[in-house]
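Lecture notes, part 5. Sequence design as translation. It can be helpful to think of inverse folding as translation between two languages: the language of shapes and the language of residues. The source text, in structure tokens, appears below.
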């Protein structure tokens, strides 16, 4: 068995850089350490310079087959991709430091197609049950995503200046670059006010660690995802993905009488064709309404 001492020292060096220079959050660091140590155990190489694409591909294959999982079950493609990205980030760091890794061709590493969420949307009663397991921060994230249909990046970069009473101005955060004014409930607003006061929020509602210059930064996507996922797991609901709450928002507004155009506007989609992906799981009534709309649109296009 080859001596791994140098490789472990290199991992430690990279983790120290993540903590002290990149100022990564306390939630992110343990995941990086776990993924890199798992890779070190699997490959059994002596240093970073020996890593090749084959090592990484074999590691990905082992996870897919369930070889490297405590319970013996295959990992999801999302988990495999996350671990691979953590490995690639370390390798990029050492390359930037001038280390030669001859067997590595990062552009040739293929990202796996991620599995769809186990459930596309959740009913309000299910979400209310999940909220019983959430702390203050997770509660706010889940409620805001559900009530306002916020995308993950819109949620994590939400700032104090975006909030005016019960309204949230998505502004330039919107993916389609269209302004969006969303409304939250009185209950959520009260919880939000309490959070702002307790945490002394002056900029980002969900803030991460400051950068090396002391500038405030938004919480990372992975941290937000982890915060939102934990209550679902505790409630016995595996396979959660934050975007499912956006589907839940779309479902609720349509079932409560929103027209197709109103739904498109509230979802901040560039076209109704995009919104179609959010109503495929609704009842027969909504599907017929959509089909009627598309039939009329086809007739207009033929004129």
């Amino acid at each position: 068995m080859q001596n791994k001492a140098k490789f472990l020292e290199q991992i430690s060096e990279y983790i120290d850089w993540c903590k002290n220079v990149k100022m990564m959050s306390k939630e992110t660091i343990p995941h990086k350490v776990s993924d890199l140590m798992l890779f070190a155990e699997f490959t059994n190489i002596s240093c970073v310079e020996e890593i090749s694409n084959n090592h990484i591909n074999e590691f990905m294959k082992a996870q897919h087959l369930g070889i490297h999982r405590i319970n013996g079950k295959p990992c999801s493609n999302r988990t495999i991709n996350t671990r691979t990205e953590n490995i690639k980030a370390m390798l990029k760091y050492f390359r930037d430091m001038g280390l030669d890794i001859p067997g590595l061709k990062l552009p040739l590493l293929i990202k796996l197609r991620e599995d769809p969420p186990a459930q596309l949307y959740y009913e309000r009663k299910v979400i209310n049950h999940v909220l019983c397991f959430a702390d203050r921060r997770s509660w706010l994230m889940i409620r805001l995503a559900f009530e306002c249909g916020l995308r993950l990046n819109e949620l994590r970069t939400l700032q104090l200046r975006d909030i005016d009473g019960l309204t949230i101005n998505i502004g330039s955060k919107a993916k389609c670059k269209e302004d969006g004014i969303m409304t939250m409930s009185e209950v959520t607003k009260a919880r939000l006010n309490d959070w702002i006061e307790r945490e002394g929020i002056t900029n980002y509602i969900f803030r991460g660690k400051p950068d090396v210059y002391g500038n405030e930064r938004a919480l990372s996507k992975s941290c937000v995802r982890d915060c939102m996922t934990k209550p679902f797991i505790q409630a016995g609901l595996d396979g959660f993905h934050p975007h499912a709450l956006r589907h839940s928002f779309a479902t609720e507004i349509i079932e409560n009488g929103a027209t197709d155009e109103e739904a498109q506007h509230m979802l901040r989609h560039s076209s109704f064709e995009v919104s179609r992906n959010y109503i495929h799981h609704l009842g027969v009534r909504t599907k017929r309404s959509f089909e009627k709309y598309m039939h009329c649109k086809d007739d207009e296009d033929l004129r």
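The translated text above is only one of many valid answers, since several sequences can fold into similar shapes. Residues 77-96 form the longest helix (20 residues).
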